[in-house]
Amino acid sequence: MVGRLPSVNPLLAPVAALAVWTHIILLWMYATRLPAVRRAGIVPDPTAPRGAQMAALPARTRWKSDNYTHLLEHPTVFYAASLALAVQGVDASWVVILAWAYVVFRIVHSLVQTTVNRIPVRFVFFAMSALCGLSLSLAALHATLA
């Protein structure tokens, strides 16, 4: 049995949580996409223009794929900033709260996008997560320069 390190930075928990969430969306994407591809009779064609075949799938199916892509875009900044803070030993409660807020906003953004896909609602949660990400990035920069 692997023991828990006594000085694990609490910033690593939201990082791990968002990584797990990204895999949940990946599984949900394939759980909906593969049956939809079969129903549509799509045969993968590597010469087809990017996304052309997937455009034939129902929008509700594509939303999961779109969200998975989004979870591989902006969150990379969150991962970098959070890990930079953790490596530097920064674990102030406000920083940990910001990191968890980022994760919660991204999860809510995912749930909105993958179910009802109301863009104005999604945007609010994206903007809130982006503000948390910016704050974490600035904190990481400050910690690096201090």
Essential attributes:
146 residues, mainly alpha, Four Helix Bundle (Hemerythrin (Met), subunit A), 72% helix, 0% strand
The proportion of residues in beta strands is under 5%
Q: Could you give a short account of the major beta sheet?
A: none
Give the helices and strands as they follow along the chain: HHHHH
Number of strands: 0
- CATH superfamily annotation: Membrane associated eicosanoid/glutathione metabolism-like domain
Oligomer: single chain
Overall tally of domains: 1
* Annotated CATH architecture: Up-down Bundle
What does this structure look like?
There is one protein chain. The chain is built from five helices and no strands. The protein is mainly α and 146 residues long. It has one domain (12-145): Four Helix Bundle (Hemerythrin (Met), subunit A), CATH 1.20.120. α1 (12-40) runs antiparallel to α2, α3 (75-87) packs parallel to α5 and α4 runs antiparallel to α5 (119-145). The N and C termini lie far apart (38 Å).
Write a compact overview of the structure shown:
This protein is mainly α and 146 residues long.
